[in-house]
């Protein structure tokens, strides 16, 4: 079945057409990957690291082209797309060095003339399923360390970012990743799920990495559980930003604008609800609404805060989120699709050519609202009041996600109390909820994931398994616990 990927800023622009695979093709790719992994694991880790270095250099050499393609295919503003490409380079740079570390340990034994060791072994074949909002950076967070650790990879990117995925894949092939070690399969959801199930049953997949919705994450988690596997799940978020009474309000507004509306709010780390102290609520809201009103939206090849939604599918779900706005809410400014009939001041380009939506700031949000409890993957931010920091922390935790959060405060005591009380995997102080750096643990808890972490050295635990070894050079049978030396 062919799939046509179009430019969401101009839907008549066809970016690529790919043939979607069946579940069978997914299984075949996993089989090739299984075969190829045996040889790849024998390549010394420092040499695998060199190949990762080649990838980083090739991405750098083709950075502008790749960024332009990402912008054309998913509508991410070009500045952010360049940042996304840089994130691959940063990831490669980190893991080049890891090829010369990938440390194990030497551990003392309780018996004389005996030495204990630990080794990191590759897991085998990693099946990586990723979303299209970060079509190249987030895949690199999985694929680069997985390969470095001696695994092979079967990658299922989002269809609507197929051209970006293909360009990313081509770089890996050109950098010297052997055939079969990295396979890409374009397939829609149910074929992927069936293929994955089959591959797990046949023992062809040893680790699953998934970035996407919490709903699909639960299904993948259940499937993996049946095969006694722990997947790496990076799911949705309802990321709160707390603005305390002593916060620098202009800074908080800048943070809320970028976190809430950067990438059109389509990051898993995007701001969900600004939880603002009652004493500064009105002033924060006034400045925030003004900033949103002045923000430039439109053609993502220019200098805009955000462009179109990723794809038609996301435009449709955004319409659903708008339906959560109730009588007791105040919506500041226009909502819905930007058209000639529903225009936006300062819009850059031609609105009706793509999936452009007005930014929605919704105040008067209550803790029982769908708007407050559910992820709204799009340019919509709720604003609500709190009176004590404990209450703000409780509100931050209430939706049950736990990916990212931030606090704007000039009081370090509040920042530390917030950090300790909030259930999120990532906490920002006086900075946006989004914009993770490539070498800090990335991941969430609760509905945001199963506690797995990506990035930096922490991701090594996803793509290696510890093996212990004990070596007895005493020349006799020494029995643990029984022959322990008495002092
Ligand atoms: C995601 O949306 O899946 O923190 C990841 C950020 C990004 C990653 C977001 N670097 O904004």
From TrEMBL:
<dbReference type="InterPro" id="IPR016163">
    <property type="entry name" value="Ald_DH_C"/>
</dbReference>
<comment type="similarity">
    <text>Belongs to the aldehyde dehydrogenase family.</text>
</comment>
<protein>
    <recommendedName>
        <fullName>aldehyde dehydrogenase (NAD(+))</fullName>
        <ecNumber>1.2.1.3</ecNumber>
    </recommendedName>
</protein>
<keyword id="KW-0560">Oxidoreductase</keyword>
<dbReference type="InterPro" id="IPR029510">
    <property type="entry name" value="Ald_DH_CS_GLU"/>
</dbReference>
<feature type="active site">
    <location>
        <position position="234"/>
    </location>
</feature>
<dbReference type="InterPro" id="IPR015590">
    <property type="entry name" value="Aldehyde_DH_dom"/>
</dbReference>
<dbReference type="InterPro" id="IPR044638">
    <property type="entry name" value="ALDH7A1-like"/>
</dbReference>
<dbReference type="GO" id="GO:0004029">
    <property type="term" value="F:aldehyde dehydrogenase (NAD+) activity"/>
</dbReference>
<dbReference type="InterPro" id="IPR016162">
    <property type="entry name" value="Ald_DH_N"/>
</dbReference>
<dbReference type="InterPro" id="IPR016161">
    <property type="entry name" value="Ald_DH/histidinol_DH"/>
</dbReference>
<dbReference type="Pfam" id="PF00171">
    <property type="entry name" value="Aldedh"/>
</dbReference>
<comment type="subunit">
    <text>Homotetramer.</text>
</comment>
<feature type="domain" description="Aldehyde dehydrogenase">
    <location>
        <begin position="5"/>
        <end position="468"/>
    </location>
</feature>
<keyword id="KW-0520">NAD</keyword>
């Amino acid at each position: 079945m062919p799939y046509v990927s179009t430019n969401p800023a101009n839907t008549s622009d066809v970016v690529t057409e790919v043939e979607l695979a069946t579940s069978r093709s997914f299984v075949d790719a996993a089989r090739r990957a299984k075969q190829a992994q045996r040889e790849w694991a024998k390549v010394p880790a420092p040499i695998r690291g060199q190949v990762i270095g080649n990838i980083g250099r090739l991405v750098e050499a083709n950075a502008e082209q790749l960024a332009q393609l990402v912008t054309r295919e998913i509508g991410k503003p070009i500045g952010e797309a360049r940042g996304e490409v840089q994130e691959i380079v940063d990831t490669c740079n980190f893991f080049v060095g890891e090829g010369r570390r990938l440390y194990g340990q030497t551990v003392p034994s309780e018996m004389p003339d005996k030495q204990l060791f630990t080794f990191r072994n590759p897991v085998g074949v990693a099946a990586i399923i990723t979303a299209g909002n970060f079509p190249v950076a987030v895949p690199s967070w999985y694929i680069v360390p997985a390969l470095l650790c001696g695994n092979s990879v079967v990658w299922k990117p989002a269809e609507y970012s197929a051209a970006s995925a293909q360009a990313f894949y081509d770089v890996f092939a050109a950098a010297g990743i052997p055939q079969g070690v990295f396979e890409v399969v374009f397939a829609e959801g149910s074929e992927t799920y069936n293929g994955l199930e089959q591959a797990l049953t046949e023992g062809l997949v040893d680790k699953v990495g998934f970035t996407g919705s919490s709903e699909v994450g639960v299904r993948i988690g259940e499937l993996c559980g049946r095969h006694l596997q722990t997947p790496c799940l990076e799911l949705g978020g309802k990321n709160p930003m707390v603005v305390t009474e002593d916060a620098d309000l202009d800074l908080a507004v800048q943070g809320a604008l970028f976190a809430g509306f950067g990438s059109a709010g389509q990051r898993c780390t995007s701001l969900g609800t600004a939880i603002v102290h009652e004493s500064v609520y009105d002033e924060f809201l006034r400045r925030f609404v003004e900033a949103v009103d002045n923000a430039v939206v439109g053609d993502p090849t220019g200098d805009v805060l955000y462009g179109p939604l990723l794809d038609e599918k996301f435009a449709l779900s955004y319409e659903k989120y708008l339906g959560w706005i109730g009588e007791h809410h105040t919506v500041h400014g226009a909502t819905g699709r930007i058209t000639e009939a529903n225009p936006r001041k300062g819009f850059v380009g031609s609105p009706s050519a793509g999936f452009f939506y007005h930014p929605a700031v919704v105040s008067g949000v209550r803790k029982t609202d769908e708007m407050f409890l559910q992820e709204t993957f799009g340019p919509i931010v709720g604003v609500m009041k709190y009176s004590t920091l404990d209450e703000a922390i409780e509100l931050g935790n209430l939706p049950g996600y736990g990916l990212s959060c931030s606090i704007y405060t000039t009081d370090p005591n509040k920042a530390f109390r917030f950090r300790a009380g909030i259930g999120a995997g990532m906490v920002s102080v006086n900075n946006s909820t989004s914009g993770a750096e490539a070498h800090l643990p990335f991941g969430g808890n609760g509905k945001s994931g199963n506690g797995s972490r990506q990035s930096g050295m922490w991701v090594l635990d996803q793509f290696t398994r510890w093996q212990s070894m004990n070596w007895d050079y005493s020349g006799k049978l020494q029995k643990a616990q029984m022959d322990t030396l008495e002092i």
